[in-house]
Amino acid sequence: MRGFEYANPTTKEQAVALLGSSWGDAEVLAGGTDLLSLMKDDVVHPKRLVNIKDIAEFGGIRSSKSGLRIGATVTIQELIDNAQVAREYPALVGAARGITSPQLRSRGTVGGDLTQRPRCWYYRAGFGLLARANPSEEGGESLVLHGDNRYHAILGNSGPAYFVNPSSLAPALIAYGASVRVYGSKGSRDVAAEKFFVLPQSDNDREYDLKPGEIVTEIIVPAQAGVKSATYEVRQKEALDWPLAAASVALKVSGGKVTSARIVMGHVAPTPWRAAAAEQALAGKTINEQVAQAAGEAAVSGAKSLGRNAYKIQLARVAVKRAILEAARGGAR
Amino acid sequence: MAEYKWPDADKRTFIGKRISRIDGPQKVSGRAKYSFDINRPGMLFGRIVRSPHAHARVKSIDTSAAESMPGVKAIHVMAEPGKPTAELNWVGASVVALAAVDEPTAEDAMRAIKVEYEVLPHLVVDTDPKMAGEYARPANENKLGDPDKGFSEAEVTVEGMYGLPVITHCCLEPHGSVMEWEGDQNVLAHLSTQAVTPSVAAIARPLEIPATNVRVQQDHVGGGFGSKFGPDEWDITAARLSKKAGGKPVKMFNDREAELMVAGARPSAYARVKVGLKKDGTITAWESQSWASGGLGSGGSPPLPYIFNIPNQRRQHTAIVNHIGSARAWRAPSHPQGCAITMAALEDAAAAIGMDPHDFFLKNIEMTGQRARIYEDEMKIAADLIGWKSNWHPRGDEGAGPVKRGLGLSIHTWGGQGHPSDCDLIIQPDGSVELKMGTQDLGTGTRTALNIVVADTLGLPMDKVKISIGDSRFPPSQGSGGSTTIGGVSASSRRASLDALDQIFAKAAPALDAKPEDLEAAGGVIRVKSNPAKSLTWAQACSKLGVTPITVRGKNPGPGKLTDQGVGGVQMADVSVDIETGIVRINKIVAVQDCGLIIDLKTAESQVYGALIMGVCYALYEEKIMDAKTGRMLNPNMEFYKLAGIGDIGDLVVHMMTGKGYDERGVIGLGEPPVVSPGAVISNAVANAIGVRVPTLPLTPDRVLAALEQKGGK
């Protein structure tokens, strides 16, 4: 790891001032579970780390009639341990429980889960976000296309990025219609979680809507009155393992029929992937195995294999089906 | 003179009992010091600049910028331009090493070194021998009996393709050492090794100093599995850097990435197999075309067919020489590969004639040779423990729902004869006892086993015996590999203890008014066998030594049959497979194993548990994934080089064969055999569950779903 300066601000104003105005100057340090790996692998080498764990207002979970507010530095374990969140937002806590490492749960944060970098093994080996054989050369072909893409995207994979978004919590947050509050030198702004994740066009872009000098401060989740929700992850191992596909589902059901549905897949595309066709497939239906199966089919109707990852299409289909069935089984708030 | 044999069952105080390892508290509390934990005053940190190319020649190296950096104390070029070492044959191959005052300085210096490479063509993929071209080295065909006749006699012929990829050893303590010079002639090596004694010569030779001037020390090792039999080039380089830096200690350990890329790999093995059999289950013929890769050393050919000496065989093997890093011995070298391929092919053969593989294996058990009766006994016990007869069903679970359940079985063998081992047993006039031996505790419980043998023989409590190992200044004992340690060290320490006891008896006899041969040691006293009330305490007896301690050299091999070789084991697995996701879960694995006389039942069982866990890992998760284009290993980390966690291993049941028929054979090694079968049993259980063979390990969702799709398409 290269040397760096360590800053420990106690207010968000101080933090933003310390972050600087271009990527590479500084990185935000919360749990550090991803950032330190990136630094050890020399994928990123910030000159300064800005610790935000001592900024009190970035912590804490607040629940009210209007919804839920989760501070960016709330740990995954704190989220799991909050009985009210577990009861009212089962898709979110279900996703958190999928992070099966006690170390990552204790150390990793909600903000960090959203802003962790892709796990693409070409990116992690230093070939850049777009995984080109020669990172310094613009427009070269991605190594993912002719390489080993068993863990890469099956949707939204027409380039230039082929990694999958690694966030565990994002699909559930998007299904709930949550927004991400961001603070920067120009003040606060709210971004719909669905719009927060973007497709990078160059190695220097980020895969989320943050500009240099901006920090995720909290997550706002609207109240989910009458919503049935669940997350289903397909993970090969019980022990710490990345999902091969995941789906979060939030349903409103009236008179036994679906009146609204939000279905978001994770680990299948460079961004969390809203499955609009699957949502439509559920509209007005009574949930049963066949209906859920049909929604699963609809969810992957646009999916395509990059060569080694066709199996993920089946896994995404099953994740959507099982998340729908689990949500329908669960009690509404 | 002592009779060199193991005590009868009724005379054993500790031998064969379940005894916790004596260094357990140290290990779980973090107080145990591994070589990685060694930090010496003034120590420098070593780093290696590694090849980014799978095959290249170093054209030039410019270290000038690094040399002038403050804190950089020594630089050593390992791949010298213009010399044979300039050709690099895998990503991660060593190019230049350096030592600096701290790790960040060392890493900054690495980045300051400029290396020019001439990139050469490479091959890192081994799944198809046709793609290997010039890198394929086909061997001649081997024949046994009359294969044509064997196949013509067959009523059914079953063909299949089977394989296992290259995996790494993934030692939790990476390879490396802290090397330092004491003066300009003596080297002290804190090495992470399976072979303390043999490492002395291996360090002395390249450094061109007498072996007498090298001392190797190691208290604990964090895994070796066959990959740590001596110093590596980076350890020798650490010593060279230390010398250049005026003798300051240099710490040189692989980081996780290097550990997985360059510190050893188990060769792959693939085979197309044809089995001929009669409808009553009699196997008549075997044919296999196999291939395997293990880097430049090719990796050897798996033993095919494994254990079953089928009367008519035709076999041909092709070695693939490639640029993936070097192969090293991996726990039971070649056996897991031979076993997985053979047992899968035989299970497929049984399925083809609709026969329960349990009955099929027994039908052909005479082909296993001298251990046939042991396999029969073990098969009975394993079948009971897993409920084979009530839970087994013909291939393909017909139950409702996506989760299918199945059973699989396999058998295996290993040698395990005790290796050469010397020890000194020292008994002081005050009664204190120390055993010194240049062996190592590979994590198997060697310290504990030695303590048990000496204490049991001398009739002392275990805590009255001091065990000193892990230092090359102690009497030589061989490296720990091939399940040879326990047989060797238990035999030499038993002989030393018996001889020492003879000397104590001789000194104590006059005071007890008895002949030395009428005495025995038990319960902390030396007593007359026929009149146990007539006794001296151990300390009283030892005080008869006067002022001179006794030192007895114990040896193996030696008189009396204390160790033997040749074991058999049977394993059975019960798995569930989700056919919608392809995810395999282990419900239960049963392992029934013999290993002669067991010194410590608890650590013996631990060996088997560990082997089963390691087996679950290579059956379901492990694979050294190589990128064809860049030649790199894509998963040199603990997130994508997947290993099982506690929630993934299922219920593990271990049954050790002990008592009559086993104990009198003497002590036989156990590290290797139980790791041989898990790949086969899990693969067979999955085939039984889902009704189709998943040809290659690991049984990942993509492979399982692909097999199911092919089955559906048929």
Would you kindly provide a brief summary of this structure?
Chain A has 333 residues and is α+β, with helices and mostly antiparallel strands. Chain A contains 14 helices and twelve strands.
Polypeptide structure, described:
The complex is a heterodimer of chains A (333) and B (714). Helices cover 31% and strands 21% of the residues of chain A. Chain A is α+β, with helices and mostly antiparallel strands and 333 residues long. Chain A has a 5-stranded antiparallel beta sheet. A 4-stranded antiparallel beta sheet of chain A has the order 9-10-11-12. In chain A, strand 4 (61-64) and strand 5 (67-71) form a beta hairpin. Chain B is of the alpha+beta class and 714 residues long. In chain B, 27% of the residues lie in helices and 26% in strands. Chain B contains 17 helices and 29 strands. In chain B, strand 11 and strand 12 form a beta hairpin. In chain B, helix 8 (335-352) packs parallel to helix 16. Classes of the chains: A alpha+beta (333), B alpha+beta (714).
Furnish the topology, listing elements before pairings:
The complex is a heterodimer of chains A (333) and B (714).
Chain A lengths: L4 E3 L4 H8 L6 E4 L5 H6 L7 E4 L9 E4 L2 E5 L4 H6 L1 H6 L1 H8 L4 H6 L2 H6 L5 H7 L15 H4 L23 H6 L3 E6 L2 E6 H4 L18 E8 L4 E8 L10 E10 L2 E10 L6 E2 L1 H7 L6 H11 L11 H19 L4
Parallel strand pairs in A: 1-3, 2-3
Antiparallel strand pairs in A: 4-5, 5-8, 6-7, 6-8, 9-10, 10-11, 11-12
Helix pairs in contact in A: 12-13, 13-14
Chain B lengths: L23 H6 L14 E7 L5 E7 L1 H4 L4 E6 L9 E2 L5 E7 L2 H10 L1 E6 L16 E3 L3 E3 L2 H7 L2 E9 L2 E2 L7 E7 L3 E6 L4 H12 L6 E4 L15 H12 L5 E4 L2 H7 L2 E2 L2 E9 L5 E11 L19 E8 L14 H18 L4 H7 L8 H15 L1 H4 L11 E12 L6 E7 L5 E5 L8 H13 L6 E5 L15 H28 L6 E4 L2 E4 L2 E7 H6 L6 E7 L10 E12 L4 E12 L6 H20 L30 E7 L20 H13 L10 H13 L1
Parallel strand pairs in B: 1-14, 12-13, 17-18, 21-22, 28-29
Antiparallel strand pairs in B: 1-5, 2-4, 2-6, 3-5, 7-18, 8-18, 9-16, 10-15, 11-12, 11-14, 16-17, 19-27, 20-21, 20-26, 23-24, 24-25, 27-28
Helix pairs in contact in B: 8-16, 12-13, 15-16
